[in-house]
Amino acid sequence: MSLLAVLTPRLMVEAVWQVDLERLAALGLKGLVLDLDNTLVNWNSHQVRPQVRAWLERARELGFALCISSNAHSPRRVRRMAQELGTLCVTHAGKPRRRAFLRPVELMGTRPETTAMIGDQLFTDILGANRAALYTVLVRPLGRWEFPVTMLSRLAEQALLALIRRRVKEGA
Prior knowledge:
The protein is α/β, with parallel strands linked by helices. The protein has helices at residues 3-7, 21-26, 50-61, 75-85, 99-108, 122-131, 148-170, and strands spanning 11-13, 31-34, 65-69, 88-90, 115-119, 135-139. It has one domain: HAD superfamily/HAD-like (Rossmann fold, 3-Layer(aba) Sandwich). It contains seven helices and six strands; from the N terminus they run αβαβαβαβαβαβα.
């Protein structure tokens, strides 16, 4: 698999609440691994947007298992957010390692081929989930603020996104 292929998500949308859950269900997906910061909430925030809450509720109604996989430095915050959102969670996940995605699959009782990863970063969420054979969905970050190291990786990510967007639109 080429580097570009392993960094290319299967689907790209603006925000998590725009992910078409019925489409994912029609593809046979049963579980959703979710990034927390800048995917479900702004970085280091506890505030959940109403659209996110409604989307998660719809996911549960459709029978999706849900698990947050986060590299955040505060496991207590991740666990608290997961409890508030009604999801399982893996803290200090170690993304992009495959284990960061296979552990949530195991916790949800799904299989990689029936699980999607939804996240905002190419070099952690998409890279690792593609390596673990999950269906990958890239969303735009919810906010501008994030962990300083992530801000640096965004520079390289931006250089690849135009090429990747073209590839995803063409269905390559």
